[in-house]
Amino acid sequence: MFRSGSEADADSTGFTNGVNPSDHCLAGRVPNKQRQARHKLYTDITLWLYLNFGEASLTGTKVAQQFHISVRTLHKLFHEFNDSATFASFLNDIRMRNARNMLRDSLLGHLSVGDIGWLCGFSDSAHFGKVFKKYHSITPGQMRNRAHGDDEPEASC
Asked: The HTH araC/xylS-type domain covers which part of the protein (predicted)?
């Protein structure tokens, strides 16, 4: 409702003419657009990580260069949009979940544990085994054996 000059005094909200600055078409939109742009960038980065997790030389610096941002900005994006993961832990999580799935896949049984580690971005099979065991509480070989029903050692005669 339009108010005349004498009614232009502050209403119960404390704003004159019933106009609340937060209702203004620009109020609040700039930060939202900036946040949306940052969220899109974060989403693009995480998608790119899912597609490129197997690169052993993948680092925060390389990802930042790929997206033309600073390493600090990369880390800030993860802090802003992922409460539970840093860049490094997010990448490690992708690698470990993919390694687990590959070890369980009977069609990939011809690949060695080291090969799977290499495909998941680990250039050193010993390091892969150590990280895998820390993450899953079992070794990659044990994961493969459990997935293929070879959990129990063979009985000796």
From this structure: 43-146
User: Are the beta carbons of 25 and 90 closer than 8 angstroms?
Assistant: no
Q: How far apart are the first and last CA of the chain?
A: 94
Q: Give pLDDT, residue 83.
A: 86
Is 20 part of any domain?
Answer: no
What is the tally of helices (H) and strands (E) in the chain?
7, 0
Domain assignment of residue 4, yes or no: no
CATH number of the domain within which 94 lies: 1.10.10.60
Burial of 67 (0-12, 13-18, 19+ CB in 10 A): middle
Distance CA 118, CA 112 (A): 10
Q: Which domain holds residue 62?
A: 33-148
Q: How many domains does the chain have?
A: 1
CB-CB contact of 20 with 13 (8 Å): yes
pLDDT in tens, 15-71: 444 444 444 444 445 579 999 999 999 999 999 999 999 999 999 999 999 999 999
Report if residue 157 sits inside a domain: no
Buried b (16+ CB within 10 A) or exposed e, 125-134: beebbebbee
